[in-house]
Amino acid sequence: MSVHLTTDLAGCVLRPWRAADRDDLIREANNRKVWRNMTHTFPHPYTERDADLWLAIAADPGASIQLAIDFEGRAVGGIGVIAGEGIFAQTAQFGYWLGEAHWGRGIASAAARALVDRLARERLFARLEAQVFQWNPASMRVLEKAGFEREAVLRCAASKDGYLIDTILYGRVIGRSQRPPNESALKAAAG
């Protein structure tokens, strides 16, 4: 996959993370409000060591994709997918974050649409999933603008910031389901 993606928002592109992003990464990620909407793998406070570790991971993501959200020449957030494994290899966990100073400007929506559109064109995965904490309706709107559908409310599914909360599961199907053969067809094939 080509890793430089333009978006429909002027000044916003998706690109590989680079070592020169270290200071921007620390500045944007080291924010309790950002951390509060992320999984347990996103640290707070966000230190230089955390930035160095992330940049190393992003440099070699394997089947996953990790990109910087670049707005007007600066890394202001991140977006990507974590590839599933085994029987879930066609499903990827979709996620993004954006520095607080950039919220409400359409940047996350533009980034999400650009990455989802590219994933759909290239058919890298059949399904994308994202879970959002119940207290984050802005992130739900970002997903909906990128074509995700609300599929389920997972009651008391996460513990974050001292609270046991619901998460909302969103999905976007890119591939088509294939009906498995019926039992008699399997027996006939086995001969």
Give your account of this protein's structure.
It is a single chain. By secondary structure, this protein is an alpha+beta fold. The protein has a single domain (5-190), classed as Gcn5-related N-acetyltransferase (GNAT) (Aminopeptidase). The protein is 30% helix and 32% strand. It has six helices and eight strands. It has an eight-stranded mixed β-sheet with strand order 1-2-3-4-5-6-8-7, sandwiched between helices. Helix 1 (22-29) packs across helix 3 and helix 4 (107-122) crosses helix 5 (137-145). The longest helix has 16 residues, at 107-122. Residues 12-169 form the N-acetyltransferase domain. This is GNAT family N-acetyltransferase. InterPro entries: Acyl_CoA_acyltransferase (IPR016181), GNAT_dom (IPR000182). It holds the Pfam family Acetyltransf_3.
Write out key terms for the chains shown.
GNAT family N-acetyltransferase, Aminopeptidase, 6 helices, single chain, Acyl_CoA_acyltransferase, 191 residues, GNAT_dom, alpha+beta, 8-stranded mixed β-sheet
Helicity range: 25-40%
Q: Please report the total strand number as a whole number.
A: 8
- Give the H and E element order: EEHHHEEEHEHEEH
Beta-strand portion reads: 25-35%
Our count of helices gives 6
Do you know the CATH topology? Answer: Aminopeptidase
State the CATH superfamily name: Gcn5-related N-acetyltransferase (GNAT)
Largest sheet: 8 strands, mixed
Rg (CA only): 18 Å
Terminal Cα span: 41 Å
- Assign the CATH class: Alpha Beta
**Principal-axes shape call:** globular
| Oligomeric state | single chain
Mean pLDDT: 94
Domain N-acetyltransferase: 12-169
Protein name: GNAT family N-acetyltransferase
Pfam family, one: Acetyltransf_3
InterPro entries: Acyl_CoA_acyltransferase, GNAT_dom
